[in-house]
Amino acid sequence: MAVSPVPSRIHADLSRPAVARSGDLPWLPSPLSGVERRLLERDGGEVARATSIVRYAPGSHFAAHVHGGGEEFLVLEGVFSDEQGDYGAGTYVRNPVGSAHAPFSRQGCVIFVKLRQMDPADQRRVVLDTRSSAWLPGLVPGLSVLPLHGFGPEQVALVRWAPGTRFPDHGHPGGEEILVLEGVFEDERGAYPAGTWLRHPAGSRHTPCSDSGCLIWVKTGHLPAAAPRRAGEPARGR
How many other C-beta atoms are found inside a 10 Å radius of the C-beta of residue 78? Predict the structure, then answer.
């Protein structure tokens, strides 16, 4: 059966803020049976700069392929596998530009995955079990941080917010991207329950908090700077 084409542009303008509640999105088939995805961000066809939630049915597999722009993923449920090992829920993996593998899942899994978004000079493969890693104190009381990776201005981490935690107003010169894993993350624009993906473009500001507490995956410093504004043009991302 032919696979219906996926939209080639979803939240593709990196200079604009974006919000997607993954639980509200349909599961779309991939070219391989048993592998479906919810599309959060995409620029291109089947070979695309993409951010997705991907679900593997038990016993499904993906053909061997090369990561022309790198691959980064966090296992949300089940066990994801390839010829280098098994990666249970909570495992964070980075496969650098030029790497290759043939992934599969014996029991089924769900992963949050980013494709074709790596610096080619960042050639360190990362495999980190976040469920057995040490957390560090955050910048304000109530925050705990688990660093996952850093290269140049790009920083990736898990951040746990205790109930009632507030963070002061601050800017993101290189942008920020968030996936809410547990609880409810908030800022002056709204409340974002588990499963929500957010992108704040370079130069944006906000004042985040969490009344009930939450756990988020967060990446900063990786988005391109916005073009200079013309006189009288409103700022984006505020």
Answer: 19
